[in-house]
């Protein structure tokens, strides 16, 4: 089992013919992802060769869905065009849109995440590494060769920390890893993933990675208290961050005591989540919880 993405997923790539789109489409194909087409209205009707696979280019998401049955799109378009790309995908009725693009204006993200929700399209991102179900499918830029299929579910604001925990826990492996993005507005939240992992019979333990800024982790803690029966292990990036400074992601700003790593850690620990002080310690806590210690 997995959440959101499986070997059955049929993936379109908006922006496939650009430099980043080409590079990461090749990586996704190498990971076994069923990439069924790209989208570029100026290059519709062409095909792009990726080693031994020729991938067709469609003029729109709707055309690609009609021709292939695609149910996932990965968005690699520049920030100025991201809103239009997501709206197009939502209008076509795609089930999942993974928005890799960073630097999207917040008002655009507010608009397209709300629009997609009304249309029934799940957004992962923006400004995210995507998601991977090891051994099945990879939608985005997460390295596919640093872990294996297993029984841990991972949801993270940070791409880099996603990769580190995947590597440190590679001997156990993961059901699905979801990088939700670190912008102030994201389409899929910690809570969404906690609910999905709770319902996934093959996920035995959940790793939640947060960071300073906002109250997403505090809200996740409240959800864990009421709804999650599986063990949860957490890590919060930013214990050494100075107050009042933006750190890394656009959403990572601390004002007074609100949004600090310490406040988030305390909220999670209060509901039984084990919280590591470093990624390596977090991995050790995962091992201990799986062993019943």
TrEMBL record:
Protein EC: 6.2.1.5
All copies of domain CoA-binding, residue ranges: 4-104
Binding site for substrate: 163
Record's keyword annotation contains Transmembrane: no
Active site: 249
Reaction(s) catalysed (UniProt annotation): GTP + succinate + CoA = succinyl-CoA + GDP + phosphate; succinate + ATP + CoA = succinyl-CoA + ADP + phosphate
This protein's name: Succinate--CoA ligase [ADP-forming] subunit alpha
HAMAP family in alphabetical order: Succ_CoA_alpha
InterPro entries reported for this sequence: Cit_synth/succinyl-CoA_lig_AS, Citrt_syn/SCS-alpha_CS, CoA-bd, CoA_lig_alpha, NAD(P)-bd_dom_sf, SUCC_ACL_C, Succinyl-CoA_synth-like
Family designation: Belongs to the succinate/malate CoA ligase alpha subunit family.
SUPFAM superfamilies: NAD(P)-binding Rossmann-fold domains, Succinyl-CoA synthetase domains
UniProt keyword terms in alphabetical order: Ligase, Nucleotide-binding, Tricarboxylic acid cycle
SMART domains registered for this protein in UniProt: CoA_binding (SM00881)
Pathway: Carbohydrate metabolism; tricarboxylic acid cycle; succinate from succinyl-CoA (ligase route): step 1/1
The protein's role, per its UniProt record: Succinyl-CoA synthetase functions in the citric acid cycle (TCA), coupling the hydrolysis of succinyl-CoA to the synthesis of either ATP or GTP and thus represents the only step of substrate-level phosphorylation in the TCA. The alpha subunit of the enzyme binds the substrates coenzyme A and phosphate, while succinate binding and nucleotide specificity is provided by the beta subunit.
Residue positions binding CoA: 17-20, 43, 100-102
Name of the gene this protein is made from: sucD
Subunit structure comment from the entry: Heterotetramer of two alpha and two beta subunits.
């Amino acid at each position: 089992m997995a959440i959101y993405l499986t070997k059955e997923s049929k993936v379109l790539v908006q922006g496939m013919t650009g430099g980043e789109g080409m590079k990461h489409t090749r990586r996704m194909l190498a990971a076994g992802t069923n990439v069924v087409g790209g989208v570029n209205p100026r290059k519709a009707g062409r095909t792009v060769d990726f080693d031994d696979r020729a991938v067709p280019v469609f003029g729109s998401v709707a055309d690609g869905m009609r021709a292939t049955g695609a149910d996932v799109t990965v968005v690699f378009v520049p920030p100025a065009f991201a809103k239009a790309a997501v709206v197009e995908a939502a209008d076509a009725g795609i089930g999942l849109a993974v928005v890799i693009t960073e630097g999207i204006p917040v008002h655009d993200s507010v608009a397209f995440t709300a629009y997609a929700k009304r249309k029934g399209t799940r957004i992962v991102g923006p400004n995210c590494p995507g998601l991977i179900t090891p051994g099945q499918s990879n939608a985005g830029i997460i390295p596919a060769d640093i872990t294996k299929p297993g029984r841990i579910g991972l949801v993270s604001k940070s791409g880099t920390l996603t990769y580190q925990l995947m590597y440190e826990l590679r001997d156990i492996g993961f059901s699905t890893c979801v990088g939700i993005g670190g912008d102030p507005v994201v389409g899929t939240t910690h809570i969404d993933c906690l609910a999905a992992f709770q319902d996934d019979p093959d996920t035995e333990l959940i790793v939640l990675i947060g960071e300073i800024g906002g109250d997403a982790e505090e809200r996740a803690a409240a959800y864990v208290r009421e709804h999650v029966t599986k063990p949860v292990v957490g890590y919060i990036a930013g214990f050494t961050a100075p107050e009042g400074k933006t750190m890394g992601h656009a959403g990572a700003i601390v004002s007074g005591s609100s949004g600090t790593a310490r406040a988030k850690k305390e909220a999670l620990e209060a509901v039984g989540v084990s919280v590591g002080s470093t990624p390596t310690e977090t991995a050790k806590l995962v091992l201990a919880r799986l062993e019943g210690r």
